[in-house]
């Protein structure tokens, strides 16, 4: 059954069929011609998958990130970080990492990070004396903190695709690993600064630093409002996204006064376009998930893998390697939707905690977004930096290695991902 679905799916990909349609076609052919069921089942499965209140969080989180850029909050963030770390040797590289880390708590996506701040970050590093290749590679590598540091659109998709897992718990599981990724990038940046002189800024006057801190404070409070409200049981993930959207609108209109109704319209259209793509993927992916559940594919895969190992750590290592390889070739969202329904129950059968496995899954496929040959973040960063993809692919290798080391740490030390959710009661 899995072989038939996989064969049809990859044939569709080879001939150029979009991933969402490839999922739908393979699922439809199997249901109609192999199972002999009614074609009406397809529309019902798609409707049931999309008729979900938590799904509303996705377009709202996308809007939050886009409005934060349009309201002038991101330039204030960069200016503040420039004062905060620009005086240190390697300060521009540190600024790149810290700005992505902060924006990760707002947008929840890697694409938004590169598209919103990538050009500015690269230009600032270039003026400080860094090579274009290193500047672009660091920008691409730091962007994947967006889907790992909460709130995360990828984690919402994973939780809905896998089922029976807390979105809030998954958010909390990403905090420490996300900080470890930031630390690994800062360490690589520090190592790079040892190789030559780079421009530094004078230590800022305390009055100016205080003034800039006050200006950026509304943006810094946004992640605290979203995550604090959710973990405190004040509102759900979807409600937190709605409150975050209202908060950014208030800041854009009443505080920075840089947001216009035209900006809001453009942001809504952009979010609708992105959400439509994700919705189509989730709808067609739900067909595959239903087929796998109906045919007890998870039990079959567990039995097969148990012949080779019953060690949960070995299972995680093998799964991570497979996901990393597939991430080089496929879109991360498609991988989550297609494989999470299959692998999450298998991981549970091996005794792996759902939150632990979910985080390893999301981290690995996100690193695939910056890995050649088809990592989407590579191509976006290449266009933003006006740099050939081949040159960027070579420069990003050390960053991919560093981030995969963090994944290995999470695999071997599960408490990195499960400690905060456990303390919070998840």
Chart the SSEs and their pairings:
Elements: H1 2-14, H2 19-34, H3 40-50, H4 57-70, H5 73-85, H6 91-107, H7 110-127, H8 132-143, H9 153-162, H10 167-173, H11 175-193, H12 206-231, H13 237-255, H14 261-294, H15 297-306, H16 312-327, H17 332-349, H18 354-368, H19 376-385, H20 389-395, H21 397-412, H22 415-423
How is the main sheet built? none
Count of distinct strands:
0
Estimate percent helicity.
Answer: over 70%
Overall mean pLDDT stands at 84
> Please, how many helices?
22
- Return residue spans where pLDDT drops below 50 for at least 5 consecutive residues: none
| Radius of gyration (Å) | 22 Å
Order of helices and strands: HHHHHHHHHHHHHHHHHHHHHH
Strand content: under 5%
Task: Explain what you see.
There is one protein chain. The protein has 426 residues and is mainly α. It is 77% helix and 0% strand. The protein is built from 22 helices and no strands. The longest helix has 34 residues.
Structural features:
mainly alpha, 426 residues, globular, 22 helices
Summarize the structure.
The protein is mostly helical. The protein has 22 helices and no strands. The protein has helices at 2-14, 19-34, 40-50, 57-70, 73-85, 91-107, 110-127, 132-143, 153-162, 167-173, 175-193, 206-231, 237-255, 261-294, 297-306, 312-327, 332-349, 354-368, 376-385, 389-395, 397-412, 415-423.
